[in-house]
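Researcher: Re-running this chain for the archive, since the previous output was lost when a drive failed. Same request as before.
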Amino acid sequence: MSEISKRFEQIVTSTQKKLLDRGAVMPERTERGIRVGCAEIVPEGPYKHIEVDGVRKYSDVSLNKVAIRIANELALHHSGPNLDTLYKLDQEYNRHFVDSAFFLERFHRARNAGDDFREELMWTRYTVAKAKAKAAKERAEQMAAI
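Model: Regenerated structure tokens:
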């Protein structure tokens, strides 16, 4: 084994130990998705669903960090308002992200049609939605940090 391989193995081992010390449950890949204890993250397109013992608890989670955190908390049998708040932040991010994509598409249509007023309006709405999506993502990922 080369020196790089040994160092990589040490980093992986120490990272796993740190996560276990913090109370995280180590994930494992399955045919359906990723299992974290009794919880499973099931991908479906750009979204993830979180199931516990085959029962869907959270649907259409957008951010990976949020899905991982929720699955970890459910695997440790934690529930409550923190998970619901985290899920709502993820849904807020998703809503603003979808809005920004919609407004950007409308901006391009207005530009191609030569409608200057609508072009400027859609660009403004796009930038506002994009800023809101970025802020919501930062809040959700900060709350989801392990």
